[in-house]
Amino acid sequence: MFAADLQGGRRGLLAAGVAALLVTAGCAQLSGGVRPQGTDIWSGRMSLRIDSQPVQTFSALFELRGSPEAGELSLTSPIGSTLAQLHWSPGEALLKNGSEVRRYESVDALIEAATGAAIPVGALFGWLAGRDDRVPGWRPDLAQVANGRLQATRENPGPTADLRIVFERS
Length: 170
Known about the structure:
This protein is α+β, with helices and mostly antiparallel strands. It has 2 domains: 1-31 and 62-116, no CATH class; 118-170, no CATH class. Helices cover 20% and strands 39% of the residues. The chain is built from 3 helices and 9 strands, in the order H-E-E-E-E-E-E-H-H-E-E-E. It has helices at residues 9-25, 107-115, 121-128, and strands at residues 40-50, 56-66, 71-76, 82-89, 92-97, 100-104, 138-141, 149-154, 161-169. A 9-stranded antiparallel sheet has the order 6-5-4-3-2-1-9-8-7. A hairpin with a 7-residue loop joins strand 7 (138-141) and strand 8 (149-154). The longest helix has 17 residues, at 9-25. The radius of gyration is 15 Å and the shape is globular. It is found in: Cell outer membrane. It is a lipid-anchor. It comes from Variovorax paradoxus. Belongs to the LolB family.
C-alpha cells in the first residue's frame, strides 16, 4: 500500500490508507514524553480530494507535531486504528505502517508518493498557525483558521486537489 505499488486500484487504496492515517493521528498518542518548548501540536480531521480519473477522496484523524524540519504525523481511522505514522528529519522521511517501514528523501516526497498530491508539509505548519506561507500552485484559504478550519487548493500542477482540515492546537 505504498506509492511504488500504486497501479490502478492500488493507488486509490493507498490514498484511502494515507487519509485514514491522517484521521487516525488525531486519536493516536505518539510516544515521546515531554513536548519540547515551542513545539505546537495540531490534531483533528483531515480530508483530501484529488480530481484525478477516477476522483480520489479520503479522510482521517490526524496529529501533527514538530516543525517543517523535523516532526511527526500520525493518521488513524475513525475507530482509532493506527493507519500510519510519518516521521521526518533533514534528508529523511519514514512511513511506518504496522511492522513495515518505507524511507523517502523528504516528507513532501512521501506524501506525494502516497497520495498523488504534493501537499506542502512545510507550508502546512504556517497555514495552521494562520500564516499565508506561499507555495507555487497552492491557494490556502485562512479565513477560518481562528475557528479551527483550514482549506487549501492545489491548482497547479493538475490534477487539482482540495485539502480540508478541522483542527485544534495544543
